[in-house]
Design brief:
By secondary structure, the chain is α/β, with parallel strands linked by helices. It has helices spanning about 5-10, 30-35, 35-50, 50-60, 60-85, 100-110, 120-130, 200-205, 210-215, 245-260; strands at about 5, 90-95, 135-140, 145-155, 160, 165-170, 175, 190, 215-220, 225-230, 235-240, 265-270, 275-280. Helix content is about 35%, strand content about 20%. The chain is elongated and about 100 Å long.
Length: about 300
């Protein structure tokens, strides 16, 4: 289980270790409170037992006396937690694979020596779930000195190009990251401002025909309404706004019967339900007189 040991919480990095670190000394301001915890506790009792409110009334400072009593009580509570060892000494994490340790620590918002009972687990969970790789998170305090984090990371689904930016998205269209995208170059490319939210449904439809699916390299969302599908050899299939699944099946039948994707075509227009429109590749320019065609290269 990846663990953030006490030194690494302070330095903002992750290590893997099953050993528990020894409990550390409290921070300087906590040690000061600890040395005087007996005097603080006695002071709180004296204020309560000797009628501190009456004394403050005579001095005309009831508000100051109440504030002082509250501060003394708060300091006594801090001292009690430090004495009991209820300070953050360790952070453990489950489920982290792609999320950077420094990003997780920053979102967690806790430091070595912080009071464990003062740590807001719900607020930390909300911050962690704003990280791109994180789909969901659970954060809990584990007595006496540990914070435990469980995360579920998003699964990369496609590369999304929008406004000249290239982003990694999950199946629901949530943006994961825009860094280190080279390792995801095998994923399909989705293009268009409104493409991410509809990518999952499109890929489900494409996967119904495996022979076509393996040849798809990109899909462009046109006008926020329909798709142009780009194949590995540069052929583009224009799908209709309505009945795209039927058009995709029709293309599969034509390719199985006539090998249409391997013919000299540029565009296969499937937007008209009762006909198929093909745009052919332009013919090769004529050779100038006297110029012989190049002989094919001999295999080495």
């Amino acid at each position: 289980m990846p663990s953030l040991r006490s030194r690494d919480v302070a330095q903002g990095r992750l290590v893997n270790s099953a050993k528990r670190t020894p409990r550390f000394a409290a921070q300087r301001w906590l040690r000061v409170v600890g040395r005087h915890k007996r005097a603080i506790a006695v002071g709180v009792l004296l204020v309560a037992a000797t009628g501190g409110s009456a004394w403050a009334w005579q001095a005309g400072k009831i508000g100051d006396a109440q504030a002082l009593a509250a501060q003394l009580a708060s300091d006594a509570l801090v001292a009690t937690q430090v004495t009991a060892g209820l300070v953050v000494n360790e952070v453990t994490v489950e489920g982290r694979i792609e999320t950077a340790g420094a990003d997780l620590l920053g979102a967690l918002g806790v430091g070595r020596g912080d009071l464990l009972l003062s740590f807001d687990a719900d607020a930390a969970r909300a911050r962690i779930e704003r990280l791109g790789w994180i789909q969901s998170a659970m954060v809990s305090r584990r007595l006496p000195d540990r914070i435990h984090v469980e995360v579920t990371e998003r699964i990369p689904f496609a590369l999304w190009q929008s406004d000249r930016r290239l982003l990694l998205i999950d199946r629901e269209g949530a943006v994961i990251t825009d860094h280190g995208l080279g390792q995801f170059s095998n994923l399909p490319m989705i293009v268009g401002a409104a493409a991410a939210a509809h990518a999952g449904a499109l890929m489900d439809m494409i996967a119904v025909v495996p022979s076509l699916h393996v040849r798809v390299r990109a899909a462009v969302r046109v006008g926020g309404r329909r798709w142009d599908v780009h194949f590995d050899n540069g052929v583009v299939a224009k799908l209709p706004e309505e009945g795209a699944a039927g058009a995709w099946s029709r293309l599969a039948e034509l390719d199985a019967q006539y090998r249409i994707l391997d013919r000299a075509v540029q565009i296969i227009d499937l937007r008209l339900g009762d006909r198929l429109v093909l745009r052919l590749e332009p013919p090769a320019p004529p050779r100038p007189p006297g110029v012989k065609p190049k002989a094919p290269a001999r295999p080495v």
